[in-house]
Amino acid sequence: MDMLVDFASRFVLQFQAPALAFLIGGMVIAALGTKLEIPDAIYKFAVFMLLMRIGLNGGMEIREAELGDMLLPALFAIVLGCGIVLIGRFTLALLPGVRTEDGIATAGLFGAVSASTLAAAMVVLEEEAVAYEAWVPALYPFMDIPALVLAIVLANIHLAKKKGGKATQVRVWPIIKESLQGSALTALLLGLALGLLTRPDRVFEGFYDPLFRGLLSILMLIMGMEAYTRLNELRRVAHWYAVYAAIAPLAHGLLAFGLGYLAHLATGFSPGGVILLAVLAASSSDISGPPTLRGGIPSANPSSYIGASTSVGTPVAIAIGIPLFVALGQAVFGG
After folding, report:
1. Domains, the chain, with CATH or none
2. In sequence order, what are the residues at sequence separation of 6 or more whose Cβ sits closer than 8 angstroms to the Cβ of residue 172?
3. Which of 48, 67, 112, 144 has CA 20 to 30 A from 183's CA?
C-alpha cells in the first residue's frame, strides 16, 4: 500500500516536473494548431549536447570504476534488448490486422533506447538524491544495437519465407555499423571516449552540465509536438499498436527491474542503477532507431512503429514508467 501511495504522489508531482510539463505543453500547443516551429538544427543540437554530457560524465566515472562491476548489467542489457524483440515477435506481430514485419519493426524500436527518456530519468534521480553509477547510461548501446539487429534479421527471414524462398543471409555488420554511426550513439560514444581518455572536467562543469536541464526541456517540447502529430498516423493502423505501446514500456521496465535486482544481489549494482536499467528497457528509440529500421526493413510501415513509439510509448515511459520505477526502487531498497 505504501508503494501505491508513493507512486500516486510521484505520479502527480511528475506532471509538475519540467520534463513531463514541457512534453505535455508540446502536445497541447500542437493540438491547438500552433504555428510554432523549432528548427531541426536546434533539435539535433539539443540531442547532441545531452548525449555528450551523459557520455562525458560516464567516461570520467568509468576511469575510477571497477570494470568487472559493469559486466553483468551489460549482459542483462543485451538480454533485454533481444528479449523485448522476441516478445514482440510472438505477441504483437501475431495479432490480427498487424503485418508481421510491422510488428517486428515496432518491437525493434521498443527494444532500442530513447536518449530523451534516459535523460529525463537521470534528472529525476538527481532531484531525488538517488545515487547511481555514472557508467549506467553507457549500457545504452548494449541494449540498443542487439535489438535493432535482431529485429532486422527476424523481419528479413520472415519476408524471405513469405516469398517462398529460403531465408536470405542478412549481413549483420552493416547494421551494427549503421547503428554506431547514428547521431545518438556517435555523440554518446564520443563523450565516453573523451571522458575516459582525456581530462574534460572544466568544460564539463562550465558548459555541458549547466545546459543539461534547459536543453532537455526544449527536447521534451519538441517531442510533445511530434507525439501529437504522430497520433494521426497511429489512427490509420491497427489499434493493437496503441495497446502494445501502452503496455509494453511498463512490462519491459518491470522485467529489467527484476534483472537489475539480480545484479544488485550479485555485484552490488546500485538501486539507482536498477531504476535506470528499467527506464532504458521501458524507453523506445526516437533518434537512432527509426532510420536504421527504415533502411533494414524498407517494407515496414513507419506510421506503425514510429507512431506507436513517439505518440504513446515515450509519454507512457516518462509519465508513468519513471515514477513507477522510482517508487518501486524506494519500496524494494528502502530510503
Report:
1. 2-31+38-330 (1.20.1530)
2. 149, 153
3. 67
Model confidence, pTM? 0.86
pLDDT of residue 16: 67
| CA separation for the pair 261, 279 (Å, rounded) | 14
Quick one: pLDDT band at residue 10, thresholds 50, 70, 90? low
- State how far the Cα of 27 lies from the Cα of 315, in Å rounded to an integer: 10
Residue 68 has pLDDT above 70, yes or no: yes
User: Helices marked H in the chain — which ranges?
Assistant: 2-14, 18-31, 40-62, 68-89, 100-111, 115-127, 140-162, 172-181, 183-197, 201-203, 209-234, 240-267, 271-282, 289-296, 302-307, 314-316, 322-333
What is the tens place of the pLDDT at every residue in 299-323?
998 889 988 998 899 989 998 899 8
Band of residue 186 on the pLDDT scale cut at 50, 70, 90: confident
Burial class (CB in 10 A: 0-12, 13-18, 19+), 183: middle
**Other beta carbons less than 10 A from residue 3's beta carbon:** 14
The stretch 193-207 carries a mean pLDDT of 90
Alpha-carbon 10 to chain mean position: 21
Distance separating alpha carbons of residues 187 and 254, to the nearest angstrom: 28
CB atoms within 10 A of CB 33: 6
Q: Give CA–CA dist 322/316, Å, rounded.
A: 9
